[in-house]
Amino acid sequence: MISVTQARALMLEHIAPLRSESVHLGDALGRTLAAPVTAARAQPPFRASAMDGYAVRSTDTPGHLEIITEIAAGQMPKQELGPRQAMRIFTGAPLPSGADAVVIQEHFRRDGTHIDAPGVAPNLHVRELGIDFAAGETLIDAGAVIDGPVLALAAAAGAATLAVTVRPRLFILSGGDEIVAPGSAPGPAQIFDSGSFGVAGFASSWGAAAQTNPPLRDEPSSIAAAIDDALTRSDAAVVIGGASVGDHDHARGALAAIGARLVFDGVAMRPGKPTWFAVRDGKPVLGLPGNPASALVAARLFLRPLLAQMLGGDVDASLATKTALLRVALGANGGREAFLRARLESDAAGQAWVSEFPNQDSSLLRPFARANCLIVRPISDEARRAGDAIQVLSLT
Question: Are 181 and 192 in contact (CB under 8 A)?
């Protein structure tokens, strides 16, 4: 078996970014930018008042100043400010020519058409032209995932539409005579399908348009036909289960039947050893273990970067770990890299602490529903004491 890092590198060699499309700003949330966003003009595009008050010349203060007009936000001043004059001005309004400061309305005394202004320094309460960004400046790089603040910045830049990578169409196949669809009547030896829904949920949150199927039966020709159809109708396929070496595991035979090339088969990881990857006509097929928790761990380690690369996103960022302190001791790790479901929390001082769930059985989903990270244990990692620093990988 090869390592997780080696397997992932082999997989990513076969993944290319998908084409881009243009979408309206309001439809871009959660999408991945395919081209950088540049500013159509400076922000703000003029020197602006940062407060409600009076535009003045700082050299005239302190002093008794005549109020000659007012400037509302959205209006350009129609005259220049002269000596010993003031203009009523509101937040966001352009500063008139001749003015270099704003006296806020709480700091003066008005007497009809005049104010008694205190002494102020130049540029007080003034937003300089382009203080946020300059015209033509690149504000958001390609590969960024669009969230609320990114949307706001793109809008401020003047972008009505954004170039984004199309959502990867992902077909998720699960099967086995032992599973049935939720809501149906299971036999005495059957369980409900859960892995496909968990993987589809992950994939959707990572930017894919994910589709699942009713559970397939353990019949080689139907599994082969299902994978073939999935690749015809999608950009990538995920096969859950059927990858072990039992008499009823038919994934390898199905791949051969449809002309897919197996890139790797088995990874030195726990859980998730049966993970495999294949390619057919340039389209990827990722095989995940049948146990639901194993499938979700393997999806985080392989499907997440696969989709990031298809979207033209930051693959390295999708795999970045952080350091936390262990709340409880861990025994030594064995000959496979281990990924333990765990809960990451911060104390009042901001220190990150992580606790593994005691039962790491690969069929258990209740711990996964409470987990928010994986503790990463290298091969032959020594025993760890409570309080030791360790690497964790977010589940998002």
Answer: yes
CB 30 within 8 A of CB 207: yes
What is the rounded CA–CA span in Å between residue 231 and residue 291?
Answer: 23
pTM: 0.89
Nearest to 11 by CA among 338, 300, 278: 278
Q: pLDDT tens digits for 39-65?
A: 999 999 999 999 999 999 999 999 999
Task: Tell me phi and psi for residue 271, to 5 degrees.
Answer: -80, 175
| Cβ-based neighbour number of residue 73 at 10 Å | 13
Burial zone of 323 (CB within 10 Å; 0-12 exposed, 13-18 middle, 19+ buried)? exposed
Query: Residue 343's beta-bridge partner residues?
Result: 355
**According to the 3-state scheme, what is the secondary structure of the chain?**
CECHHHHHHHHHCCCCCCCEEEEEHHHCCCCEECCCEECCCCECCCCEECCCEEEECHHHCCEEEEEEEEECCCCCCCCCCCCCEEEEECCCCECCCCCCEEEEHHHCEEECCEEEECCCCCCCCEECCCCCECCCCEEECCCCECCHHHHHHHHHCCCCEEEEECCCEEEEEEECCCEECCCCCCCCCCEECCHHHHHHHHHHHCCCEEEECCCECCCHHHHHHHHHHHHHHCCEEEEECCCCCCCCCCHHHHHHHCCCEEEEECECEECCCCCEEEEECCEEEEEECCCHHHHHHHHHHHHHHHHHHHCCCCHHHHCCCEEEEECCCECCCCCCEEEEEEEEEECCCCCEEEEECCCCCCCCCHHHHHCCEEEEECCCCCCECCCCEEEEEECC
Say how far apart CA 100 and CA 122 lie, in whole Å: 6
Q: pLDDT tens for residues 195-215?
A: 999 999 999 999 999 999 989
